[in-house]
């Protein structure tokens, strides 16, 4: 009976237009936008699973808040790792909950719920199986149709670049699960390089640094807040007091951490990103390099919010570096932009 109702709901009626939804299923943050409404949902990609009742009971911000504070029977799950789905059922549950919370209110006053046409993004390095997983997750969550686009293309559109122009643009997306570097031109990717050691890996480096230097164990959330609040590339020296567990006594211990220490902990990692950009440029045709030198490099993603990171990169690479406006949401805005032009969309959809 329920399957029959679901099938009826997915029938496309000529007089009953569907609703377009846009999904950025990120490693750190899940974003959902509704056509003509903008971003409706933006929360961390975390869930809390209760093994006693075998159900997901915490979602998004709430699940992230309780990280490290739960009893044994509640497990915090991160369904997306390195930009691709690693726990299919958890991701479906998260999308369903997000749609129920943020999307359904827009259509609650309608007698018949419109079919949802979903537009999603996948990393340029995603395999066919990983692309299929993203498609199936959106279908299982209640969407009637799914179109997928490569992330660098959507990001380029969100930066207000003409993605069909033959002027190459180098975009570096500094995300939580992946660092994606791509040269976009002529409606496709000319050259790309991906690093899996992204924002989440930086939290682990801070954990290791504090562990070795101070003999203190910090929680995942504390390491992330140190990165967010202290890391910058300006002259100002910030200080934060954090509390962790002492290795000596096992009791709480407070320590003061400076900006210079966070930079020291992450310098090797930042140099790896710079080396990746240099390798990408070196492996590109000379004409492309000339254009990139003139136009500069665009930084997007959460780490692009770090103050002074554009100047730090520009000083090392000797090419102008620009941070995108509102770098966190550039990709989903680009996806919305692409979906508006159906003629262009058909040329960019990968499945």
TrEMBL record:
Keywords: ATP-binding, Cell shape, Cytoplasm, Nucleotide-binding. SUPFAM superfamilies: Actin-like ATPase domain. Gene3D superfamilies: 3.30.420.40. Signal peptide: none annotated. It is found in: Cytoplasm. One of its GO terms (molecular function) is ATP binding. One of its GO terms (biological process) is cell morphogenesis. InterPro entries: ATPase_NBD (IPR043129), MreB (IPR004753), MreB_MamK-like (IPR056546). It holds the Pfam family MreB_Mbl. Its main location: cytoplasm. One of its GO terms (cellular component) is cytoplasm. ATP binds at residues 224-227. Forms membrane-associated dynamic filaments that are essential for cell shape determination. Acts by regulating cell wall synthesis and cell elongation, and thus cell shape. A feedback loop between cell geometry and MreB localization may maintain elongated cell shape by targeting cell wall growth to regions of negative cell wall curvature. Forms polymers. Belongs to the FtsA/MreB family. This is Cell shape-determining protein MreB. It comes from Candidatus Roizmanbacteria bacterium CG09_land_8_20_14_0_10_41_9. The gene is mreB.
